[in-house]
Write a structure and sequence with these properties.
- The chain has four helices and 63 strands.
- With 761 residues, it is mainly β.
- The two termini are 43 Å apart.
- 38% of the residues are buried.
């Protein structure tokens, strides 16, 4: 058992992060949570819209923290105007719950609305009745707002708890998108003089629910001079799926479409953003200009856009997908995409012996391809050209168009290619896999060949407060859900003692791993159960070692399945940084293409492999041990400036910070002072060119030119080393030195500044 656990820990290869936090006495906290972050319309100042619900709940370990009669405030940003507090349909609602599971009651009598942006909320007398046992109390706020003058982006609200027991902080309750809609063309074909020519599909997406309104309205599409409309197809998707009541008027260059967003259910409020897809059919008339065919799009509630729907060429080559885009899973090494279809509309458009390049996104490596529908080529010549260009290490294939066989010189050429790709584990979920075709052969354009899905989602029931230096602390229950059947893989083979686990006769080839941050360890094996679907796990062999939970997979599901991890407890050492505790989902059951050979994957060289091990993650706890602000130093340094601010007071330096190999270097004295180390505790030893920093019972030693740092005599390897610069000043790597002294570091790329927050004592 111990041998197996040691090897699991080695497989994870987590990077070292060192941070010291000063232990504090227990403080009162609420657990604050946002249920959703909706996207709102930014240009509808007369419309009431709802933000996500903010729930402020007592910690189960401190059920007398919320003090009746005391107040806290919630402040909204300028331009996000709060509606009055009440119980009506368009009112802001403030409610309380006196005891978990009890009914939510109206708290509007205890709420004062100050201007348009601030709520002052007094906790009710029902909280923590002294004559009864303490209950788990909560307050929730459902803000109704009008967006009027807000610049856009995240809507952050600020909670000031004062002495009410409510945790202060800032929370994102919604977002405001730019414009009502976003329009794009799914693929841009190259056309000739076909009548009609089919352009790329125009996709118009609402940026917020109801952005295009609910009343009858028109959409206008105008072609360039000497192009004329022939026809169109229109589809309504997602939140507009019922909007099938439409009409049109076509007049040479102009197409006007009238739509009814309410569709078959007039008056029903939509809950999902809608999509309108228009497939254009048109013809190039005499005098039409070669090049991009750009359509001008506008409408009553549609954001204006100029869209390239085709490329008009003297010779025509179309680039398109052969069917709907396939859904493929991140972390897989052999995902097959929809076929890419390249064909001439005019014979001779593809130029022989010229290079053509097909690019996929960076996180998709091409490992193989299969040809079909080949016309006008020698199939073996074309296949050889593609095979020679694919080695499994690149996201593109670059090949030379083979010569046309003499017998086919007058025929239109075309082919379809199906790529097999390896997708990085953290490939962006729901991102389209777009093939971009370019080169000097004449073939240009793009097509959507697939959509990436994360194999699983991970969600925690809540993020509980935990503290450093304590054992057996509960964390939120974790739910891991397959996005489709078979997403969690199993080879159904036994590996014996493949991993060197001599204490086990059999070990499953595939496993799901849940990995906690360095310094956070599982106290004991939690309960792990499949609660939906028919995924098979070996419950008897579920185990933990240090920060790794090991879940062996016996058999794949034929129905999307859900795993619940409950009754989980963790131990925290004193090196864990303040902030979220994130559980990472890893393992061969969801990641086939991990580069590290020690993980049991055996691929030829680097074909199709990545270094990414994590597919998804979720916050299961939060280290809540902040020192009061009065006991902190806040120092702000700016690259290239020979002064900094310490608690907002300017301080001069005799040497400026600088960047080297993406690392920030600062003079030793000023780092130490910001971290609470006085000058008397900064010691220089010329004999071994070392500097010693002393803070409380912590002694940190760094040696010029050495990347080994000693903390109380224990060596830690850094990725950079201290150095000396003119005029003889010792410069330390900021992040390593600050973290060793218990400080936090925040980098602002826009201002080239770094903020160091360290305790005074």
């Amino acid at each position: 058992m111990r041998s197996k656990r040691k090897v699991i820990a080695i497989l994870i290869c987590l990077s070292f992060v060192m941070s010291l936090l000063v232990p504090m006495s227990a403080l009162a906290y609420s657990i604050n949570r946002v249920t959703s972050v909706p996207t709102l319309a930014g240009n509808k100042s007369d419309d009431v819209q709802f933000l996500g619900t903010l729930t402020l709940k007592e910690d189960a370990d401190f059920m007398d923290d919320l003090v009746p009669g005391r107040s806290f405030t919630v402040t909204f940003p300028a331009g996000v105007k709060l509606q009055d507090v009440g119980t009506g349909g368009n009112d802001t609602k403030v409610q309380y719950q006196a005891g978990e599971g009890s009914t939510w009651e109206d708290l509007s009598a205890n709420v004062t609305k100050s201007g348009d942006y601030t709520l002052d909320i007094e906790l009710p007398d029902a909280f923590n009745d002294e004559e009864e046992e303490p209950t788990l109390d909560a307050v929730r706020i459902i803000p109704a707002v009008k967006i009027d003058g807000f610049d856009g982006g995240d809507i952050e609200v600020t909670v000031d708890g004062f002495d009410s027991g409510i945790t202060s902080g800032t929370y994102v309750l919604g977002r405001v998108g730019e414009g009502d809609t976003t329009a794009r063309v799914i693929s841009v074909p190259t056309i000739g003089e076909e009548d009609p020519a089919e352009g790329g599909v125009i996709r118009i997406t609402e940026n917020s629910v109801g952005a295009i309104g609910y009343a009858n309205q028109k959409i206008t599409l105008k072609l360039p001079p000497n192009f004329e409309w022939r026809d169109y197809d229109i589809d309504f998707l997602a939140g507009l799926a019922d909007a099938d009541d439409y009409s049109y008027e076509m007049n040479a260059r102009t197409l006007v479409i009238w739509i009814d967003p309410d569709g078959a259910d007039p008056g029903e409020v939509r809950t999902q953003r809608g999509i309108i897809q228009i497939t254009p059919y048109f013809v190039a008339k005499s005098g039409a200009s070669y090049g991009e065919v750009e359509v001008s799009l506008d409408g009553d509630e549609i954001s204006d856009a100029d869209l390239v729907i085709a490329k008009y060429a003297d010779y025509g080559i179309s680039v398109a997908s052969d069917g709907d885009a396939k859904e493929v899973l991140a972390g897989q090494i052999d995902a097959k995409l929809t076929k890419l279809y390249i064909k001439e509309s005019i014979a001779g458009s593809l130029i022989d012996n010229r290079r053509t390049r097909i690019d996929l996104p960076k996180w998709a490596k091409i490992v193989d391809c299969k040809l079909s529908g080949v016309k006008g080529f020698d199939s073996s010549d074309l296949k050889d050209a593609l095979d020679d260009a694919i080695d499994g290490t690149k996201n593109y294939v670059e090949f030379v168009i083979p010569e046309v066989p003499e017998a086919s010189s007058s025929a239109k050429r075309e082919f379809k290619v199906e790529f097999t790709v390896s997708l990085e584990a953290n490939a962006p979920a729901d991102e389209e896999i777009v093939a971009e075709v370019s080169g000097r052969s004449g073939a240009e354009g793009e097509a959507v060949l697939g959509t990436v899905l994360a194999p699983v989602t991970a969600a925690a029931s809540e993020s509980l407060n935990v503290r450093i230096g304590l054992k057996d602390q509960p964390i939120g229950d974790l739910t891991i859900t397959e996005v489709k059947k078979g997403a969690i893989m199993s080879s159904n083979e036994y590996m014996g003692d493949y991993y060197g686990w001599s204490s086990y006769e059999y070990v499953y080839d595939t496993a799901l791993l849940v990995v906690l941050p360095e310094g956070v360890e599982w106290s004991d094996t939690p309960d792990v159960e499949v609660v939906e679907g028919n995924l098979e796990i070996d419950e008897d062999d579920v185990d933990v070692e240090e920060n790794v939970l090991y879940i062996p997979i016996k058999g794949e599901s034929t129905k999307p399945s859900k795993i619940e991890i409950t009754n989980a407890f963790v131990d925290l050492d004193r090196t864990v940084a303040e902030g979220p505790v994130v559980a990472k989902v890893q393992g061969s059951a969801v990641v086939e293409n991990l580069k590290d050979a020690s993980s049991g994957y055996d691929h030829d060289e680097d074909a199709g492999v990545f270094k990414t091990a994590t597919v998804v993650s979720a916050e299961v706890a939060r280290v809540a041990t902040p020192a009061p602000i009065s006991e902190k130093n806040v120092a702000v340094f700016t690259i290239g400036q020979s002064s900094y601010t310490l608690n907002n007071v300017p301080v001069a330096m005799d040497v400026a910070p600088y960047l080297k190999n993406d690392r920030t270097y600062l003079p030793i004295r000023y780092i130490a002072n910001a971290c609470g180390v006085p000058d008397d505790n900064i010691l220089w030893n010329a004999d071994d060119a070392s500097v010693v920093l002393i803070k409380g019972d912590r002694v940190v030693k760094l040696v010029i030119g050495s990347n080994v740092m000693l903390i109380n005599g224990v060596p830690f390897t850094m990725d950079v080393a201290p150095e000396i610069v003119d005029p003889g000043r010792t410069m330390l790597p900021l992040r390593w030195a600050a973290q060793a002294l218990g400080a936090t570091v925040e980098w602002d790329a826009a201002t080239q500044s770094v903020t160091v927050i360290g305790s005074i004592n």
